[in-house]
Amino acid sequence: MGMEHHARKQTAHPVSYAPQPLPWKRIPAHSILLKELRSGRILFEYDVEKRLSPASLTKIMSALIILEKGRLDDLATVSRNAARAPKTHLRLKVGEVFRLGDLLKAMMMVSANDACLAAVEHVGGDEEQFVKLMNAKAVALGLSDTHFSNGCGFDGPDHYSTAEDLATLSEVAMRNAVFRNLVKEEREIITPVSGYRAYVLHNTNRLLGRIPGVVGVKTGFTSKAGRCLIAKVSQ
Fold first, then answer.
1. Is 194 a residue of the active site?
2. N or C, which terminus of the chain has less Cβ within 10 Å?
3. Is 56 a catalytic residue?
4. Is 111 assigned a catalytic role?
């Protein structure tokens, strides 16, 4: 995770348990966690408990809630509020109707905020109620340094997480087969059931198809957060 911070802790020293030295002359991010999932062993950590703006890594939690509370074949209508969502967006039109599963693809593959808001509003009734579900799930998972104020990852003083918490969240999400298969896709096409206009999705995770074994999961960016990444490699 490479992000600006509004941290509660002082800058920490990096701790490496990797079998070989990592090729960094300087720490390339504000917070980093490298973990071997099979054994649970930490290979490298740096400020993993620092509270940061998670940008669109937020959508991992949103996707988890959508998968738990929604039905992928549900039909969701794009509201005026969703259609006005700031970038990144697909320029969805007010009144377009999509399968919830297609909105999920758009929000996870290209971080489309209009698709995200349409899905969030459909599942939660409105964004405020959906965010309550997100925060309840964070508590249930023991994510003690995580709090959400919106469903898509916009910056805000009450919207934060940590590398440690996001790693835990991602491990939980990757146990869901639908989520796991979605975040490894490089390209998809979605079409509203209300029309014939097709939207082509190219995954923003440029590691997919370029580095052997990369199977997800999510990128993020805001001016405050900087560039963020959670990635999984299977070998």
1. no
2. C
3. yes
4. yes
